[in-house]
Design goal:
- By secondary structure, this protein is of the alpha+beta class.
- It folds into 2 domains: 53 residues, no CATH class; 79 residues, Translation Initiation Factor IF3 (2-Layer Sandwich).
- Helix content is 34%, strand content 22%.
- Strand 2 and strand 3 form a beta hairpin.
- The chain is globular.
Length: 162
C-alpha cells in the first residue's frame, strides 16, 4: 500500500496521476481507487492497464466535483476474487458479536470488494462505520455496534471524504 501512495504522489503532474494495474502485488483495482481517494484523488477511469486519477482543485473550500469522475465499481478482469472476498466478509460479520464494543475488518484482505460494499454489508449486520487506518502494510476499517439511518449516512459521507 505504501508503494501505491508513494507512486500517486511522485507521478502527479498538474493534479493528475496514472497507475498501472497489476503492478502492485495483492492490491486490487478497487483498493487502488480507494487508496487514491483516501489520498485526495478521484478516479477518472481505466484505459487498458492504466488507472487515471485527478486531484480536485477547490476554489472556496467547498467539495469539488471533477468532470468525468467514475463512481461505479471497477470490474477487475471478470471480477476475479470478489466471490471469495464476499464469503470472507460474511464469515467475519457472522462471527462478530453484538456484545463486542467494536469490530475491525482488514480492508487489505478484501481487495476485490469496493469499500462501499464492505460498509453496506457491515451496516446490514448492525455495524456502524467508525474510522479507518491505513499503514504501509495494513488497512483497517473499524465499526461500532448500531446506528440510526441518519448517523450511518453521516459516517459514510465522512468515509468517502477520506
Amino acid at each position: 500500500m505504501a508503494k501505491v501512495r508513494e507512486d500517486l504522489a511522485s507521478r502527479e503532474k498538474n493534479g493528475a496521476s496514472d497507475l498501472r494495474t497489476g503492478h502492485y502485488p495483492k492490491i486490487s483495482n478497487e483498493m487502488m481507487r480507494d487508496l487514491a481517494e483516501h489520498e485526495g484523488f478521484v478516479f477518472l477511469g481505466l484505459g487498458g492497464p492504466i488507472m487515471s486519477f485527478r486531484r480536485p482543485v477547490p476554489t472556496d473550500g467547498d467539495p469539488v466535483e471533477v468532470p468525468g469522475a467514475w463512481k461505479g465499481p471497477i470490474e477487475p478482469h471478470g471480477d476475479i476474487g470478489s466471490g471469495k472476498h464476499r464469503r470472507l466478509l460474511r464469515e467475519w460479520l457472522d462471527g462478530a458479536s453484538a456484545d463486542d464494543s467494536s469490530l475491525t475488518l482488514r480492508r487489505d484482505q478484501l481487495g476485490a470488494l469496493p469499500k462501499a460494499e464492505i460498509l453496506e454489508s457491515a451496516a446490514e449486520y448492525g455495524w456502524s462505520f467508525e474510522s479507518e487506518e491505513i499503514t504501509d502494510t495494513e488497512w483497517r476499517l473499524t465499526f461500532r455496534p448500531g446506528a440510526d439511518a441518519q448517523e450511518q449516512d453521516e459516517r459514510w459521507l465522512l468515509a468517502d471524504d477520506g
